Amino acid sequence: MKRQRVIQMALASLSSVAWLGVSSWTSADAASIWTNLASQATLKISVTGYPDQQFAEQEDAYQGNLLQGSAWQGFSHQGGRELDIHLPQPAVVHALSIDVRQYLPMGIYYPSYVQFEVRENGVWHTLGRVYNDRSRIGLRDSSQRFTLYFPPTQGQTFRILFPVHVWVFARQIACMGTYQAVSDAKTANDYPISSVTPANTTGQALTPASANQIENMLLVNVSPDSPLYTSSQFASLVAYDNQQNEPVAPFFNTILFLADGSVQDNKSAWNQYLGNLFSSHGQLAQLQEAVYQDNAKLGTPNAVENVVLTLPSTPYNGGDFGEIDGQDLSFNPTLTHPFAVQAREAAIQWFLQKAVQDFAAGAYPNLRLAGFYWQREDCPSDALGEKQLIQYSSALLAKDKLPLLWIPFYAASGVTVWKHLGFQAAWLQPNYAELGNQAFPARLTNAADIAERYGMGLELEWTRLTPNGETLYVQQLQQFAADGLGQGVSHAFYDGANFLSHAEASANPFTRAIYDDTYDFVSGQYNKIGAPIQ
After folding, report:
1. CA atoms lying within 13 Å on the CB side of residue 390
2. Could you tell me how far CA 232 lies from the centroid of its own chain?
């Protein structure tokens, strides 16, 4: 599920107007013939990514008229938008523009660019692209007009397209042209055919072999407001217990010790997280005892459980961190370090070194450190220093041959380029269970397609200990199994506040069945999932 979302500020420079080509004409020379033809046009709006019912419903509250009036129209996620402007008859056009808003506290961003195109005989040609060049350093509500001027060009259908990472608000499309004949007017064929740069896709979901042998990874919360697990609770997760509470087969082969948003961004809180892990009766000691006991009963004394630790977030402008090597660190910007990257790198280096050393010094013969989890769940282009910190962390871990892992939320910025960001493995959150009664099947099929397209694993989420919450969880098991994303694919499992251990020990057969269904999914016995309770 979405365990945190951080809106950060970004930098860009100022310019929103572009000119293409060389021509003897100027807009002033022919000002008398150019008028805004947009008010006479019809408009078709298309999603460029995966259509999503939740995001489409969010847009209902922001339905301005893009061709007339001053009200904003809002676009939420779903990749991007194509706005096709169809004129009542062929015309000669020399400029296209659109007004776009930014208000960071509400998650409304300028798009990184706006592209303008013209169609002829069913083929789109690119007139040009205007990049966002306005500073994002402030939080104030602002707008800018993206305008492209080009030589007079014949056409009847024009397109304005832009990416949408969170929200884009737009209004007042202008199509400056004339229905009069213009000598030497260009045609669409004078411009290059539009093409979309293909993403670096794989066509195969993340496998355990590509995820440092992580097959099925259970997220266990080790935050200040969460109860810690006992060895007996771990035992029923490392191995599957039958109805007689006896372990009969391996279950989750990896435990991720999650530090959620309640772990504050300072040294004291990070030390508390490490203490909960490495103390003599801490979570790693409890897990080691559970694995040892399960191994003895299963006859597998040398079996090893993977462990993933969280690298807590180092947010820009996050305040004082604490002292490292006699130096006080602050995540706030300064004149000499406007992005506070150096301080955040120092905190990351201290934490990773300490965690790796503490693990090596511990008595955990049946545990294997398998990587670190990057806590922030998105990576917007305007998150100051975020990409640099990801790559810095990845490089540090590479020295110990450890991967940096990521579990972004659905439609998070950076999902399609997770490898380029610097992660070695990633799992996508469908956020299906969060939708509750408004959950719709397309969210799961889209998530499955995204995972296969971009080489990701999938997270399965159980967020409510209620009949409806259980139903939503089982639907995920069934759908991913039907899509061929069960065995052979790497998974992460989020089960709220230790719901699976609760289910294993439950006297309610319907609740106990959730534990059994999860094992059936992990072990490939898909026909048993959701079977009627006897």
Report:
1. 26
2. 34
Neighbours of 57 (CB within 10 A): 11
| Predicted confidence (pLDDT) per residue in 84-105, tens digit | 999 999 999 999 999 999 998 8
Is residue 525 within 8 A of residue 481, CB to CB? The reply is: no
Residues 73/170, Cβ–Cβ less than 8 Å: yes
Joined tokens for residue 463: 């967020």
Instruction: Report whether 428 contacts 179 (CB < 8 A).
Output: no
Residue 172 CB contacts under 8 Å (≥ 6 apart), including other chains: 66, 69, 70, 98, 99
Q: CA 301 to CA 286: how far, in whole Å?
A: 17
Amino acid, single-letter form, for residue 190 = D
Beta bridge partners of 95: 149, 176
The separation between the first and the last C-alpha atoms of the chain, rounded to the nearest angstrom, is 32
User: Would you call 80 helix, strand, or coil by DSSP?
Assistant: strand
| Residue 374, CA distances (Å) to 115, 414, 421, 423 in order | 33, 13, 12, 9
Coil/strand/helix, residue 514: helix
Structure tokens of 240? 């599957």
pTM above 0.90, yes or no: no
| Alpha-carbon span 427 to 485, nearest angstrom | 12
What domains sit in the chain, N to C, each tagged with a CATH number? Answer: 17-190 (2.60.120.260), 208-528 (3.20.20.70)
Q: At what angle do helices 267-278 and 283-298 cross, to 10 degrees?
A: 30
User: pLDDT, tens digit, for every residue of 429-455?
Assistant: 999 999 999 999 999 999 999 999 999
**What are phi and psi for residue 476, nearest 5 degrees?**
-65, -45
Rounded to whole angstroms, how far apart are CA atoms 206 and 477? 17
